[in-house]
Design a protein that fits this description.
By secondary structure, chain A is mainly alpha-helical. Chain A has 13 helices and no strands. The longest helix of chain A has 32 residues. Helices cover 24% and strands 34% of the residues of chain B. In chain B, α2 packs parallel to α4. Chain B is of the alpha+beta class. Chain B is built from eight helices and 20 strands. Classes of the chains: A mainly alpha, B alpha+beta. Chains A and B meet through α8 and α9 of A and β6 of B. The complex binds adenosine-5'-triphosphate (ATP) and magnesium ion. Magnesium ion binds next to α1 of chain B.
Chain lengths: 273, 349
Amino acid sequence: MPEPRARRALGYAAAIGLALTMVAPFLWMLSTALMDEFEVYQAPPPLLPAVPRFANFTEALTALPFALYFRNSLILAVATVTGQVVTAAMAGYAFARHRFAGRTPLFAVYLGTLMVPGIALLVPRFLLVDAMGLVDTVAGLVSVELVAAWGIFLMRQYFLSLPRDMEDAARLDGASEWQVFWRIAVPLARPALATVALFAFIDAWKALLWPLVIARSPDLRVVEAGVASFHGMYYANWPWQMAAAVAALVPVLVVFLAAQKAFLRGLAFGGFK
Amino acid sequence: MADLALAHLVKRFAGGVVGVDDVTLTVGEGAFTALVGPSGCGKTTILRLVAGLEEPTSGTVQIGGRDVTWLPPRERDVAMVFQNYALYPHLTVRENIAFPLAVRRMAGAELSRRVTNAAELLEIGALLDRKPAQLSGGQRQRAALARAIVREPACFLFDEPLSNLDAQVRAQTRAELVALHRRLGATILYVTHDQVEAMTMAQTVAVMARGRLLQEGAPLRLYRDPASLAVARFLGSPSINTVAGRTTGARFEGALACEARVAACADAVLGVRPEHLVLGPAMDAAPAQVTLVEPLGPESLVRLRLRSGEELVARVAGEAACCAGDAVGVRVAAGTGLFFRAADGTRLA
Ligand SMILES: Nc1ncnc2c1ncn2[C@@H]1O[C@H](COP(=O)(O)OP(=O)(O)OP(=O)(O)O)[C@@H](O)[C@H]1O
Ligand SMILES: [Mg+2]
């Protein structure tokens, strides 16, 4: 049996090892983003660029209309976050607080959709959106992830964990059911809503498959598609691709840092108590 | 202000639990009625039925002569102070107090005037910009009260509002609530399981047990003239002493004996308040042993054991003349015994 200190050291070593495996790809991405186009193909590949080449960023981001791609991604992300936060809050509250016919089976159906892999939905979703004539439109792009069952689940659990007295007090104070929801329940659920918003943002930002399928014109491309397009059939410009990928990460970092506090509280309050 | 009338109110919960069982109760306009009873007897359920947070299985609720049984809470014009105060944690004290007015679309000078008035009445004017988490228990209670009075409702419901406060603040708040009641002339239904609160604050006390209303009346009347053993036991601290025995029509005979001009009953219970036990060496007294003396200052509690094993508590003025281990005689002061049927606890007349 190792000494407590040795055991602690072992624990730290394991934690550091794990952290490194998580961070290593990012560092490599960063390093590659600063390499010369041909440096990447040396064998063995160097860990660091001989001379950091910051021009990769400007070149990559101007080689394709990235301003447009960022705009499209932002539209997709904002629509997804708004849609998921609003529907998760309302549906979660209804499932947690209101009694209505079919509540339990309906909730089970919602949960059941969590088990369907997204890839299996690709074709049916496309056919639906096509039938509505929305292929190659912004509406078609943002249409499929506006409601998320896991967000509804999270919000329901969270509302269930909140005391009802505050809502009852609001009813007695004269609030209508809408006012109880908007003025009391929603503010109290802020940490959980921040969690839903954050995950929705990340999901939308890194979405690639659906935007590729639904957008035919290059005007409707998202950032991820732009990043991927540096990788052609015969040739790949790794430094440009990595430079674009790093740029694409910046908004995620900003949103994550902004939401971190509320997000961590949201996880702790996840309702599994 | 308006009167409050409950008629044959029944609440059966899903799963068959009967929370409230055929309760008929009236709180007069401007009256202060305390609803007391042991835990789980249905007090909170009655308040929730009056407030409209719960639908009755049968029966009616009237406020100011208007049948509100099926109206939603906000159309009933009642305010409630919850046991845990239920302040809105994300709003400041000012916004909490203003909430009932704001949801009724009041704004501007009238709103801030009323918020200020309510806050001043409860002496929390200096705390208006704090969040509830930054208040002490007593301050939260005041904020909750201010939120209740700010819109001048037809009647107030209180659910054990003092139970989270320490003894000193509680005693002080008790007096303040009574003063507030006088000042507002408010109709109040006040739930507590603290009989001291009920006795000292209310004009009428209603005693409940297992969903039923046992008796209601003026606090002292209930104390002196309880209709059943349960009511007698619930009011008074320390609780009433009980001794099993029988009544002959003229006397009670048991471990204690006394005059009992009530119907004869072979299986009776004598109830005698601690202050009605007389200690001394008297010849006709029952012999007992002192097990403990608790001096409280102005009075002392003397715990006794009768030879037959019954435990009694006597309340004597000032310092007790005896101490633990002493042998004393104990008897019931003339005309103070209460007699009940052992079978169902009803009073013998
Ligand atoms: N929503 C509910 N569903 C089922 N049973 C309930 C519900 N609410 C209360 N009860 C039951 O009804 C009875 C009365 O409850 P109530 O809360 O009114 O008691 P109380 O007198 O307020 O008790 P306490 O002094 O402990 O607050 C209890 O047996 C309780 O278990
Ligand atoms: Mg209660």
